[in-house]
Design a protein that fits this description.
69% helix; 0% strand
């Protein structure tokens, strides 16, 4: 087993990734529920064609 496989299979790595994903999702949900001046322009950004 390679070092990379050991890293990805370690419980500590999985826990860190899970926490990071949850933080991102919660921040996205907060912005969606309570749009601020900072998030407003991002929502109106032009779509790349």
């Amino acid at each position: 087993m390679t070092l990379v496989q050991q890293l990805y299979n370690s419980d500590m790595y999985k826990t860190q990734q899970t926490q990071a994903i949850q933080q991102v999702l919660s921040s996205i949900n907060q912005q969606a529920v309570q749009p601020t001046v900072e998030t407003q322009p991002a929502a109106e950004a032009p779509v790349a064609e």
